[in-house]
Amino acid sequence: LAKPAIAAAPTPAPERRAKLSNPDRVLWPATERSPIVTKAMLADYYMRMAPLLLPQVAARPLSILRTPDGIDGESFFQRHATKGMSPLLQPVVIPGQPKPYVTIHDEGGLLALAQISATELHPWGARAATPEVPDRLVFDLDPGPGVDFATIRAAAQRLRAVLDACGMTSFPRLSGGKGVHIVVALGTSQRGGAAGWPEAKAFALHVCKLLEREDPASFTTTMSKRVREGRIFLDYLRNASKATAIASWSPRARAGAPLARPISWTMLAKATSPDAYRLTEQLQARAPRDPWVEMEAAAIPLKHAIERLRRRA
Ligand code: ATP
Ligand code: MN
Ligand code: MN
């Protein structure tokens, strides 16, 4: 087999390798465009990206996709903390839930995730301490068969316009798979209490229905496969209690080790595919700037947005 034309990433620090079992296990096999990614390289990626990645995942219940034999082997989605897990993967009890969830809080937690071959990180849209108070909305644009990326880009802009009209600043992310996510930060410290998940879900559905009504040939809020042909499914269901979405900067357990990559609207206008960014490229590059730096400052209470939407309707 011919070697891929891309240089291998630098070898991770020896002391970090020492903490990993099977550091040379291949989690992502090589493809024509990308070299292999080993467990040690995943750990290295998590450590390098910790300043950007931790704010996205820390202190939130975390579902993790584990691929102990690599992405082509058996994989499983883990939500709950189990006996024998590293104490760095801190169990957290959510009121009303019988089993504790997993949270991490620091670089050690990220390293422990690499150790168990966690190749995808999916946080809740709420913090573990306040699980019923959403602080993120995620609009997940899922292209049906036959939808090209230019159409997804245009759809993202239309969604952005609706959110703007609600007073919400939104931020795009390439999913690393087939689509794009549009993310909004919610303010959570209102007098009289912040909105809960039922309101968040109703709001997200309302916004998506608005787009569907405006342009039913392009959009659907129906999950059924048949309806999705040639349309974009506006997946509002990320916005619910216990629902997750892929974390910004998380790798994806797909060929070539693509990343869920937060980007700016300017970058989206120039983007050509949702899996354009790769883990191995990031291992060799300087840490990127956070394209979402403005997000926290732009957070708005959901109740204000609901009010603006009501007046608009
Ligand atoms: P794409 O752009 O390809 O759609 P995506 O990350 O948006 O990528 P979806 O298929 O739309 O992928 O998945 C939506 C979300 O559902 C995921 O991000 C994840 O948080 C959650 N999810 C995925 N797989 C599982 C699973 N096996 N169990 C529970 N939740 C899952
Ligand atoms: Mn999606
Ligand atoms: Mn989806």
Q: Mind telling me the C-alpha Rg?
A: 20 Å
What is bound: which ligands?
adenosine-5'-triphosphate, manganese (II) ion
| Integer average pLDDT | 93
Order of helices and strands: HEEHEEEEHEEHEEHEHEEHHEH
What's the level 1 CATH class of the largest domain?
Alpha Beta
Indicate how many domains the architecture comprises. Answer: 2
Percent of residues in beta strands? 15-25%
Q: Structural class, please? A: alpha+beta
Helical amount = 25-40%
Please report the distance between the alpha carbons of the first and last residues. Answer: 60 Å
How many β-strand stretches? 14
CATH topology of the largest domain: Alpha-Beta Plaits
> Which residue ranges are poorly predicted, with pLDDT under 50 across at least 5 consecutive positions?
1-11
Number of helices: 9
- Based on the coordinates given, report the CATH architecture of the largest domain: 2-Layer Sandwich
Please, could you describe this protein's structure?
Helix 2 crosses helix 3 (107-115). The strands form 4 sheets. Strands 8, 9, 10, 11, 12, 13 and 14 form a 7-stranded mixed sheet that branches. Strands 4-3-7 form a 3-stranded antiparallel sheet. Strands 1-2 form a two-stranded antiparallel ribbon. The chain contains 9 helices and 14 strands. Strand 9 (171-174) and strand 10 form a beta hairpin. Helices cover 31% and strands 18% of the residues. The protein has helices spanning 14-19, 39-57, 107-115, 149-165, 197-214, 225-228, 265-270, 279-284, 302-312, and strands spanning 26-28, 37-38, 62-66, 76-78, 90-92, 101-103, 118-123, 136-143, 171-174, 180-187, 219-220, 232-235, 261-262, 300-301. It folds into 2 domains: 16-123, Alpha-Beta Complex (DNA primase, PRIM domain), CATH 3.90.920; 136-241 and 296-312, Alpha-Beta Plaits (2-Layer Sandwich). Adenosine-5'-triphosphate (ATP) binds at residues 77, 122, 140, 142, 175, 177-179, 235, 244-246, 274. This is DNA ligase (ATP). It comes from Roseomonas fluvialis.
